[in-house]
Amino acid sequence: MTRINMKVNAGEMPVLSIDEAASYIRASREHIYNLMRRGELTSVRAGHRRLIRRADIDRMLERRAEQFEPRPRREPRAAIVDIFA
Question: Of 6, 19, 34, 52, which has fewest CB within 10 angstroms of its CB?
């Protein structure tokens, strides 16, 4: 029997494992677990595996992008002059 090596991009998979989800958003596994703990990301249990729908990850990223507000620029500090030098 011949095995076919099918390598699929995580962006094409409808559900992702924790590791695949972390790789998909370029984050750590711990960050994915934190997102799930805070309720920002949902997952389902399939046997001993935890799976996350890619569509849920994409929606979370869209929500965060809409809420993003850049920090105001800080004024540069004045140079400190050492009078004892």
Answer: 6
